[in-house]
Write a structure and sequence with these properties.
Oligomer: single chain
Number of domains: 1
CATH class: Alpha Beta
Number of helices: 9
Strand order of the largest sheet: 3-2-1-4-5-6-7
Shape: globular
Structural class: alpha/beta
Strand content: 5-15%
Largest sheet: 7 strands, parallel
Radius of gyration: 19 Å
Helix content: 40-55%
Distance between the termini: 47 Å
CATH architecture: 3-Layer(aba) Sandwich
CATH topology: Rossmann fold
Length: about 280
């Protein structure tokens, strides 16, 4: 398909890396004017140039830091000044600080500011513009680990769980206004998210292979494009009667038992001997 988002303006946060980059490219290919939200000016500028060179429309108005309300509102203001509308907000910015050498309070503040307060402020800064037009799509990003954890990343998972609560509460309120709110729950996705563990000496390849073998029924970890497709569906007219959905995109994790869980429960996965 093409032009599924024609004449629409989409802000994608976290667009300078991983899943956000894949989503921004996909939205641009489908005809949206894409506003690239991210803190890295080099990556933001390069992605905008790439999309524009391919015949799309993209803007990077400068660093968009979700820990700064001023920064968030600057990007939204620039979008309204140039395009006069915001049809889509896709919030994919996120970062974990669990395990960093800092106090509990420092880690809590950084994690919540990046993964909860930032998306919250962004949503409620965009919402007045959608209310005026009685139209809009908001897509938040949680994590499979929020309610189906494979490792105890307490603060990150707490923040992501709260994003799911925001999804269902806001969806209920704004549905009569023609605004839809949904949430994607990614499983293990191969992105720069894992780089911090590599710096600590972890073998990321072995780690991801282990996750795929033990925790993902489909037997592989995801890649950013695995998220971009559902992210397109949830802001397109194909999902026009869907709101308040928190959708696992995790190779079966979250919905069905993984191989490891099946063994734990005394069940033998199909094709396995159980020995």
């Amino acid at each position: 398909m093409e032009d599924m988002l024609k004449n629409q303006v989409a802000i994608v946060t976290g667009a300078t890396s991983g899943m956000g980059t894949a989503v921004a490219r996909t939205y641009a290919r489908e005809g949206a004017s894409v506003i690239i939200g991210g803190r890295n000016p080099d990556k933001g500028g390069r992605l905008a140039a790439e999309i524009n060179a391919a015949g799309g429309v993209a803007r990077f108005y400068g660093p968009m830091d979700l820990t700064s309300e001023e920064s968030i509102k600057a990007t939204i203001g620039a979008t309204m000044d140039e395009f006069g509308q915001i049809d889509i907000l896709a919030s994919f910015a996120g970062q974990t600080f669990d395990g960093d050498e800092m106090s509990v309070r420092e880690s809590f503040d950084l994690t919540m500011n990046s993964n909860l307060l930032g998306p919250f402020v962004t949503v409620f800064s965009v919402l007045p513009h959608m209310r005026k037009r009685k139209s809009g799509k908001i897509l938040l990003c949680s994590s499979n680990g929020a309610f189906n954890p494979t490792t105890p990343a307490y603060l990150y998972h707490m923040a992501k769980g709260a994003c799911e609560s925001l999804t269902v509460n806001l969806a209920m309120e704004v549905a009569p206004l023609g605004i839809r709110v949904n949430c994607i729950k990614p499983g293990a996705i191969e992105t720069p998210f894992w780089d911090e563990l590599a710096k600590q000496g972890a073998d990321i390849g072995a780690l991801l292979n282990g996750i795929a073998a033990q925790e993902v029924p489909m037997g592989r970890v995801g890649v950013p494009d695995d998220i971009a497709g559902p992210a397109l569906f949830l802001v397109s007219e194909l999902s026009s009667y869907i709101t308040g959905l928190c959708l696992y995109v995790a190779g079966g994790a979250g919905y069905v038992y993984s191989h490891a869980q099946s063994y734990i429960l005394g069940k033998t996965p199909t094709g396995a001997t159980g020995e």
